[in-house]
Amino acid sequence: MRKLKIMEHMSLDGVIQTSGDDDFPYGDWTVSYRSPAGRDEVFAAHGGRFDLLLGRRTYDMWSGFWPQAPASPMADSLNAATKYVVTHRPESLAWGPFEGLGPDIVEDIRRIKSQAGPNLILWGSSTLTSTLFEHGLADEVTLIVYPVLLGTGKRLFAEGTPPRAFELVGTKALQSGVILNTYTLAGTLKS
After folding, report:
1. Which of 107, 148, 151, 186 places its Cα 20 to 30 Å from the Cα of 101?
2. pTM score, two decimals?
């Protein structure tokens, strides 16, 4: 059975929104923290070969960049991955390999997880994150936390995300101040 990992760049206050989203005032707030060492750590956190679970907005942003990106381990892996895309317009998908998911994304994700293949990684969707937690579909979370407060913007864990407990299984501090924390799902929150 495949595992499903959520990976996300976020500020200390949980904001994941970047310049590609609407009229967000802070542009790409991660750029000054990027380094070759950070890139290598994020790539290593993917865990080798993987497939992607993407919301339509993330797919559209990435499909405008990664197919034309210079060859690199990250670009090559993202381009080779099967992209499972939650969309109402599967006929307009072009960056492949891909499979459009919907309208029952929960059953589609269960089906994909039950098949042989590499692990799945979800990037960039707070809506999908909540759904995955609600239905017990996420196995691991890697949060790439930047030492900034943004105060506004779309957050990874939106209001209504089901309460869950996690177990820290790894942490890595980078010289830039960015911290990669990896957690496994430990079940429902105990009070």
Report:
1. 186
2. 0.91
